[in-house]
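Example pasted here:
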Amino acid sequence: MRALPVLLVTVLTAALATPASAAVRDDTRYVDPLIGSAGGGNTYPGAVRPFGMISWSPTSTRGDQTDTGAANGYAHDATRVRGFSLTHVNGAGCHPGAAGDVPIMPHVGEITSSPTADTRDQIFASDFSHADEKAEAGRYRVGLASGATADLSVTTRAGIGEFTFPVSGSLLFRTSNPLNGSEDADITIDPAANSVSGSVLTGAFCGRRANGGTNNQKTCYRLHFTASFDRPIANYGTWVDSELRPGTTQASGGEGYLTGSARAGRGSGGYVSFADSKVRMRVGISYTSLDAAKRNLAAEIPKRATVDDVAEEARKAWAKQLRAVEVDGGTTEERTIFYTALYHTFLQPNVITDVGQATRHGNFSGWDQYRAHTQLLALLAPDVASDFAQSLLEISRRNGGVWDRWVHITGPTHVMTGDPSAPAIAGMYAMGAKDFDVNAAYDSLLRQATVPHPDGLSDRGCPGQCEGQRPNLAEYTRLGYAPHDTCHCWGGAAETLEDAVADRALADLGRRLGRPDAAMEERAGWWRNTFNPATGHQQARKADGSWVTPFNPASDQGSSATYTWMVPHDVQGLAQAMGGPEVAATRLDGFFKHADGSWATGGDALRYDPTNEPGIHTPWIYNELGQPRKTQETVRAMARLVYKTGPSGLPGNDDLGTMSAWYVFAALGLYPRTPSSAELHLSSPMFTKARITKKNITILATGTPGVHVRETRWNGREVERPWLPEAFVERGGVLVSRLEG
C-alpha cells in the first residue's frame, strides 16, 4: 500500500474545506414527493415530517367507496379525491395498502344525504387537475374542481389545514372510512368548543391481499383525533350508514373489513359547516387516547399558527434531516432523484408515542427493509435506528415474545416469509445503532430461532401471511431445510434461504456481543440443502428429501431464478456449488442481460427484477467473483434505467423506503456486503463529493467522469479489495475513488 501523493493531499484538503461563512444547506428544493406516485411506486405526496406520526395526504377514488383505486391512498392517474387522510404508509406493496385514517373532505354545496350512502363517490368527492396541485417537503396544496382548495402542513403529531370555498362550505369527517375499512369508529361534535373529535378502530393491512386469505381482516390499532377551527361552526350533523342526522353531535359505527357490496354504505361520520369562505383547522392525533391527541395538538401547533408558519418549520426540519448526506456535483435531475430517495428513506419508521413520552416507532416492513433500509437508517440516523430497534423489542414483548415479519403500527400482520427481524437488528447494530437493549433483543431473537412456537404449525394466513415466524421449527432443525409439504410457510426453498440469512445474522450479532454460537454459524449454511445441483437452482424439497417437481425456475415466491442468488453471506460457497466463480459470473451475465445484450429491468421472472427485494443485492455479487468492473457497470445501469424524476421515477413499490435506500447506497458507491455486517461493497460514486455527517465520512470521485473505478483509497491508503472493512463505518474518514470511462 502506498501513501497518498502530496499533490492529491492538497487537492483533497481544498475539496473538503468548508467556508466558515457558508450558508446552512437546504436541499429540500430537490425533493419531489410525487416521485413514485405512478408506475407502482405506491408513494403518497402529502404533508409529513421526518418519521412523522401524521401524514396528511389525499385519498383518491375511482368510483368505489370501498376502494381508493390506488395503493396507499394516491395514484397519479386517479384524479378524483374523496378526502385528505391523516395517516399513510409509504410504498406498501399491495392495493389498497394501509392506513388512510380519518379522511377529511372539503365539500361545496348542501348536505342533504349521508356521505356513506354515496357508494360510488359521485356527490361527496371532487375531481382535480395536477396543474392545481403542489407537493413539497412538509406541505401539500391542491385546488379542486368543486371550487374548494386545501393547503396542508404538519408537525410530528399534528396538522394544520386552510380550506377555502367559493362562498361557504363544509368539512366531512369520514371517521369509519380508512383504506381497508374499520371495526368501529366514533365522532363527537362540540359546537360550543368549535371542535370535532373521535377515533377509529382499524387495521386490516393490505385488506384485498389474496394470498393471505382472510387472516388480514383484523384490527391493529385505534387512532384518536381532535380538531378545532378558527371560524364558528354554523351547522353540523352526523350520519350512520345511509341515515343523515342533521343537528346531532355524536355517531358511531364501523364498516367492517370486507370490500364491495359487503361494506359499501356502512359506517359513520360527521360534518361541520361554515358561513365563511375560508376556515383554518388544527388537528392532533394519538394512538393512545383522545386526551393525548389534545396534548399533542396543544404542544405542537399554537392556536394562532398559520399553514405558512408550520410549513416553514417543516421545511427546516426536512432540510436538517436531509443534511445527513450532503452531495456536490451532478445535474439538477440527479440531485432530485437522490434527495427524493433520501426523503423517502426518512418517512419511516413512524413515531407512535405522544409528546412527553420516550420516542418509539412503528411500521416495520421487515422482509423488505432488512435488505437496505434499516442499514442505511443506522448509518445516517443512528439515534432513530436505536429507538426503532428498542421499539421492535418492546412490540415483540407485547406480542408474547414473537417478532413479527410485518408490524403495522404495533400490530402483527405476519406478511411475507422468513425471520427479518434478526438481520434488521443485527445490521442496525453493526452500522452503529447501539443505544438499545441489544442483549435482550438477541436473547429473544435467538429463542424465536431455536424454540418451536405453536403458531409454527398453523396454516392460517398461508401462503402470504403464515402465522409462524419460524414455521415448523422442529422439522426445520431436524432436516436442515424447510420441507415444502409440511413447513406451514410460503415456500420451502425461499423460507430456507431467508432463515439462513437470519441465522447468519444471529451468529454475527452473538459474536459482536461476545456470545459466539457455532450452531447458528452452521445453520447459516443450510442454504446448501435446497440447492439442487441437477438444476443449478434453489429448489423446494419435501420432508422425505425428494425435490418438488415439476420445477420451473421462473416460479416460487420471488422466482427461484432470483432467490438462488440470495446467499449474500456465502457467495464463494454458492459460486462453488454452481461450478466455480467463472461459471457463476457467466450466469450473472445472463441474469442481468437479455440475449441481445440489453439490460433486464423487470418483467422477466428468469432475470433481474429491480422491483423485488430478494435480488437487489445481486449487482454487487460480481465483487465477490473477482469482477468489480461488472458491479460498477450493473449498479450504474440499474440506477440510470429505473430511477428517474417524475411520478414514475421508482422501479416498483417503495416498500417503506427500501427501493429508495437502494438508490442512496448506489449513488454513494456503497452497499452492505451482508445484511448483518458493516462491511460495504464498493461501486463507483455518482457525485463528485458526498459527506455522511453522522459518521464524518467524505466520499470523493476524482479523475475522468465515468463508470469504472481505477483505484480507491481510504484515508490515503489503497483499498485492495472491492469492499471496505467495518472499521470504515466505525472510524469514518475520506474515501477517494479515481474514476475512468
Remarks:
- Confidence is low (pLDDT under 50) at residues 1-21.
- The CA atoms of residues 678 and 729 lie 7 Å apart.
- The two ends are 24 Å apart (CA to CA).
